[in-house]
User: Which sequence fits this backbone?
């Protein structure tokens, strides 16, 4: 894969961030209108007028949700991964590798965190200079040599430099909103179905909720597809950026081989958080399953290694 330059990728990611900020609210409005239209009764108010009345409230609520998630994402991610700050005095080797790469690129050094897990994985996160961070597992620090670990760190720094991390945070927040709405609709149907009384009202409510489930599920699927549209290519570009940064593509290729053998961080249960990692382990042991590959946030490690070896 031809490397396309960091400036071009930064511009592309900034543009995609704006598109996402537009696409997800538009999808939310479309979902809201579909719900009002298909669940209206015979004597209900015109859905267009009802839409104009209700949607400002819905958008305000979603906006508040987004701002809270945007402001608190770093704390949420640390809680989900169990990561802790890594001080220079605790591990000079790691700190110096990060610092030297940042100096070579003219970057402000991000915060460095460690995940107490013997598996091998790493990720970058943040939305601005104050919140950018690189998190490394204890396993990846102990089991990679200096060149391999440098390649992994360079990969994560490229995500920061390309502003991939900000784009992913935006997509994770919005997909989380649609997932919550779909879950609410599904739980509502279960609640209606578990009621002891059987009446026309109960059946009518069940039908309305079933329609709501279908609509929210479709919206959720579309939001996931929007996210997948920006997720997979970024890994190839970050690999290429790391190769350009370190001039040692073979080191990152070797690191990916080791990581692919044991990437699962036990503490991380959220699939949204897992997509931030350099290798997103699938829940199934059958890593080549077609369904998993279709909806994978990362390209296969084997393909990434093959591309890296072309740089050697």
Assistant:
């Amino acid at each position: 894969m031809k490397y396309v330059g960091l400036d071009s990728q930064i511009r592309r990611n900034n543009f995609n961030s704006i598109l996402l900020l537009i696409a997800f609210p538009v999808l939310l409005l479309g979902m809201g209108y579909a719900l009002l239209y298909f669940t209206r009764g015979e004597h209900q108010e015109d859905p267009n007028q009802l839409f104009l009345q209700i949607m400002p409230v819905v958008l305000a609520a979603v906006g508040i949700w987004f701002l809270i998630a945007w402001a608190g994402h770093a704390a949420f991610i640390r809680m989900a991964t169990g990561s802790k700050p890594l001080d220079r005095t605790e591990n000079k080797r790691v700190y110096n590798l990060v610092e030297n790469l940042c100096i070579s690129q003219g970057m402000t050094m991000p915060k460095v965190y460690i995940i107490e897990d013997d598996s091998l994985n790493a990720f970058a996160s943040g939305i601005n200079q104050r919140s950018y961070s690189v998190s490394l597992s204890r396993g990846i620090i102990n089991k990679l040599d200096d060149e391999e670990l440098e390649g992994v760190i360079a990969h994560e720094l490229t995500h920061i430099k390309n502003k991939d991390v900000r784009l992913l945070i935006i997509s994770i927040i919005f997909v989380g909103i649609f997932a919550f709405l779909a879950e609410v609709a599904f739980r509502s149907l279960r609640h209606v179905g578990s009621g002891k009384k059987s009446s026309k009202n109960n059946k009518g409510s069940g039908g309305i909720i079933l329609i709501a489930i279908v609509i929210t599920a479709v919206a959720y699927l579309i939001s996931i597809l929007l996210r997948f549209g920006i997720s997979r290519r970024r890994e190839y570009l970050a690999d290429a950026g790391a190769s350009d940064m370190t001039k040692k593509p073979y080191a990152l290729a070797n690191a990916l081989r080791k990581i692919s053998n044991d990437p699962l961080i036990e503490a991380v249960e959220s699939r949204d958080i897992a997509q931030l990692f350099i290798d997103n382990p699938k829940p199934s042991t059958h890593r080549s399953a077609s369904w998993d590959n279709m909806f994978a946030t990362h390209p296969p490690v084997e393909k990434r290694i093959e591309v890296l070896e072309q740089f050697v």
Summary: Residues 6-309 form one domain. The CA atoms of residues 19 and 149 lie 34 Å apart. DSSP finds eleven helices and four strands in the chain.
